[in-house]
Amino acid sequence: MSNETPPAKRKRTEDPAAEDAETTKRSARFWFDDGNVVLQAGNTQFRVHRSHLVLHSEIMKDCFSCPQPDGVPAVEGCPLVHLPDSVQDIENLCALLYGLYHIDVQGIDTSYLGTMIRMGRKYDISFFKISALKCLRDLFPRTLEEWDVSHLEVKKIILRSPPFLFEVVNMAYENHIPSILPAAFLSMYKLYNLGTLTSGLKLKSNLPGEPDQRIMLEPLALIDCLNGRTSMGSLTQWMLDDIGLGTWNLDGDAIYAVPCYDCTDKPMCSKGLTELFAALVRLGVNSRQIQIPKTFLEICDTYRLLEEEGNPFCDPCMLVLQEIFDKNRIAMWDEFPANLPSWRDTKDFDT
Known about the structure:
The chain contains 15 helices and seven strands. The protein is α/β, with parallel strands linked by helices. The strands form two sheets. It has a five-stranded mixed β-sheet.
């Protein structure tokens, strides 16, 4: 039998608060000596001012107005409030409440945007919800004319923050904001090919030795995204139908919208029509980014239908084709939400 003395057991700390103190840390940014309440998320504590919390949050106002029972945990004499939220959300919450970050379209940050939506809904912080939704709805509007303008701003944001669109779409599904989805998805179709939409966007690490990451659409978002993308072929199909491809008169002659009744150069317009049919087929859905032209002339320019001396059609025929294009482009926008089955009959959380 060994005569060695067994090692002494480590004494248990009698004070649970002392044990917690060994594992918790103070926020480097939000620990005010004159703060009168301590919020804890994870193992990080934030010493802030109760007045800032109750001023903006009805839920926190109700919580702090209730009498506190004896024995409530405290840190340096301040009541300790454990929150189930992430450290990042509480850090962002404090930055917003203390005016260190102001949301605007030019300097948008999806980390703060997500915090404003989540915390605004959870703790009933009205100005969080109102400001964040306004920003999202300005970038992803309900009308085609507004989207034509806002998409240019979205492209600028993506240059600064590549995962922006993926984060926004996931945020919309997480927080029930379906009104922004048609515009957001159309922007995705224009900017990303089918492979990127399905397998996610690769994000290169800026730190040596750290692996690259990949951001993906959530499963339900991906299903709707692909359903909507498939429907984008409707624009070209409707145009082909309206121009008259596959339409014949009683004598068996093909009927086309071009050359039109007022055509001033039928040989040129007939030649242009043949090239236009080929261009519209290429414009349809494929694995590349989807082209969503703003004008019919843009189709002619993109697919090199423009002749050196000018348009491939006479003025009367160009007018007819522009009218066909405008009508079907608007129809595509109006019909698109119906191709997002999970959101077809739902409304934003604030309506």
